[in-house]
């Protein structure tokens, strides 16, 4: 698979102060437009890079929703990679793969007392429809085969390993508790088996 390397330097993170480069890809399994954000040329370094697979979350990443911790996890990772280098694979898989409009429907159900998984199930979806095949394809296109994965989600570890990526270390993010997301985080721990210290 060939990748299109449109290296454009830009600033990211809170206050837009961290240097990074963005890369686009072709030949992925679907037509989704995933990108890699590379810090300190981590895809060309000799060390095993930090990598985070971050699924798009418009409500959390852009609008800082109180329903989740996605934006905070992304900000934490950007800060960490701004210092140590790394690669964020920004994946177009909104709402654990159910899409933005369905996620908004799930929010309505969560307001009525369902947890995030129950709401998705009530709408006829599985717990997590994301597929990380393309994340593995992106890493292999960057010639990155061994990583230190920034995640709390065991599904991500398992799927990358199944696609030939060696996980040298799992680096957990912090628990970003705020008004409105405690039940969401508790469901991630109890139902999704995420590693979070609440």
If you had to describe this structure to a student in words, what would you say it looks like?
- Keywords: GTP-binding, Hydrolase, Metal-binding, Nucleotide-binding, Riboflavin biosynthesis, Zinc.
- It comes from Vibrio marinisediminis.
- One of its GO terms (biological process) is riboflavin biosynthetic process.
- This protein is an alpha/beta fold and 198 residues long.
- The chain has one domain: 3-Layer(aba) Sandwich (Rossmann fold).
- Helices cover 33% and strands 23% of the residues.
- The protein contains seven helices and seven strands; from the N terminus they run ββββααβαααβαβα.
- It has a seven-stranded mixed β-sheet with strand order 1-2-3-5-4-6-7, with helices on both faces.
- A hairpin with a 5-residue loop joins strand 1 and strand 2.
- Helix 3 crosses helix 4.
- It is globular.
- The model has no long low-confidence stretch (mean pLDDT 83).
